[in-house]
Design a protein that fits this description.
Length: 249
């Protein structure tokens, strides 16, 4: 049985300021937890119900395993319906943009993305298509928000996500910068080459003027209907698919 202080501590990690203060974030669901166990992330504690215990054989001795009741798990979960397992994972050290090798590969750059579900889906999409890096503006939603983590289905354990002054990074970039805009070359006619950064903008406002000024190649996804714009996660999926289709030609 969890103590009140344990419950209070874990529930505090639902909020960004306490995740930052304690250097921990929450992962839920057996698939996602397993992905983080086998990644470079440090899993410190696992809380799970009795029926999940057999799936956690041969855990590292550094991971503290706590068997708890369903009712206790429901007190600490970030989800509407608890998934029988919750892990505490150490936040990675802040990485500088200079640590990323942006040459001879493609990266996504996110400018002011606000919806956690969108960011999580973009991270999962990047993982599927083999896009290793996601560069975020400071006003993009936090990657360790529980809703983002849940939407990635474990893909966050493999993708480098870095927050930075996006206009400055793009200005100093040595690779082409492609921007998803309404007035550009159709995506199927764009020569992407073998490296570059794909910029995707805020759900409502699009790409900011400061970032637009750093875009070297404007790209659009032609539409036939009357919708004003595409969902940003869908847009990311189409760009990732087109990049890989071109590489495999």
């Amino acid at each position: 049985m969890l103590s009140k202080s344990q419950i209070s501590f874990i529930k505090s990690l639902h909020q960004k300021k306490y995740r930052k203060e304690h250097g921990l974030f929450i992962v839920e669901g057996i698939k996602s937890v397993t992905e983080f166990i086998h990644s470079d992330y440090l899993v410190t504690d696992i809380y799970c119900t009795e029926n999940v215990m057999p799936k956690l054989a041969n855990l590292s001795q550094k991971i503290k395993l706590h068997q708890i009741s369903v009712s206790d798990l429901e007190r600490i979960t970030t989800l509407t319906t608890a998934q029988n397992i919750l892990a505490l994972v150490r936040l990675p050290a802040n990485k500088d943009i200079e640590t990323l090798d942006l040459n001879e590969t493609f990266s996504l750059a996110l400018d002011g993305i606000q919806d956690p579900g969108n960011l999580g889906t973009i991270i999962r999409t990047a993982d599927w298509f083999g896009i290793p890096n996601i560069i975020c503006s400071h006003d993009t939603v936090e990657a360790y928000n529980p809703k983002v983590v849940q939407a990635t289905m474990g893909s966050l354990s493999r993708i480098q996500v870095i927050y930075c002054d996006l206009p400055s990074v793009l200005e100093s970039s040595r690779v082409p910068v492609f921007g998803a805009l309404l007035d550009g070359t159709p995506i199927t006619e764009t020569a992407f080459g073998g490296e570059g950064i794909i910029v995707l903008g805020n759900e409502g406002k699009g790409i900011s003027e400061a970032v637009i000024g750093q875009i070297t190649n404007r790209v659009t996804i032609p539409g036939l209907g009357k919708a004003e714009s595409l969902n940003v996660a869908v847009c990311a999926s189409l760009f990732c698919y087109e990049l890989r289709r071109n590489i495999l030609k």
